[in-house]
Each structure stands twice: as C-alpha cells, then as structure tokens.
C-alpha cells in the first residue's frame, strides 16, 4: 500500500520512525513503529520505553509524507478462561454459582470457556482516512516538513483508541 498525504508522524533520532494511521471514525488508530536499522526490531523492542510510546500517541502534529506499508493480515486466537480465573472471575465458570439472570431465564447456564480471535488486515482500503504527528521535546521532524515512511523491513504495530487503550500489538516480519 502506498499513499501520499498528511499523517501523524514522529522520528526518534537514530532509533525509529512512528506513524499513526487513524481508522475512519478517528477513535481507533493503527500505530506503526519502524526501526531505522533494517534488522533492528528486536534491538528496538529490548530498549523500548512503553511510557514514551503512550506519550507519543495522539500528541503529534500532522505532516505531509509518503507512506509505503506492505499489505498483510495477522490473526491470533486466545483462550481467555484461565486469565479470567486468575483475575478471580470464577463464578461464571461454576454451574452452581453462575448467575446470568440478567441475560437469560435459564438458571443452569454457565461458561465453559472463552475464546477470542483477533484479525488485523492492512490493505489499500485501510489507508483512506489518514492523518499524522510529531512530539517536539523527544522527536525530530524532517527539515523539509515532509517525510518518507517505507516499511520494507520488520516493524511493530499497535491498535489503540484515543484513550490510549491498547487492543492489539503485533510484529511484522516479511
């Protein structure tokens, strides 16, 4: 996918580029963090500061640039029952203690397990509503007030909302 336009963009000198691609509603966005070093993703992840990332999200200015991102689809499946039990959510899984009276009249209903499947697809259509960013105290912008973002090597991507809630994190290796 190649697109020229305004994007939320930032660059941390000698480390990585940061790009925001908002979804149509502008409430959710995909963030792509691309290391400058071609095979530098694992090195970047080891030194990555999550608080720095959260500060960058939605705190930058729109900049004109050319963006090249590969089309890809990522899928993951998770069994969440054990996680919920670890969080002390046990009654819903116990036939004698489960209470779903607010949703059904069947008194014998309980949850046996919870499965979650997540799918992320990046395509030409996913780039139509794009805006961009730069955090000036930590990040530098290009002197030309334009940028080139070519994701032709491994990168980190994050799906999050405007409240900085992260819903999906993945890495792309071509």
TrEMBL record:
It comes from the Eukaryota. Residues 1-174 form the Serpin domain. PROSITE patterns: SERPIN (PS00284). It holds the Pfam family Serpin. InterPro entries: Serpin_CS, Serpin_dom, Serpin_fam, Serpin_sf, Serpin_sf_1, Serpin_sf_2. Transmembrane segments: none annotated. CDD domains: serpin (cd00172). GO terms for cellular component: extracellular space. GO terms for molecular function: serine-type endopeptidase inhibitor activity. Belongs to the serpin family. This is Serpin domain-containing protein. It comes from Panagrolaimus superbus.
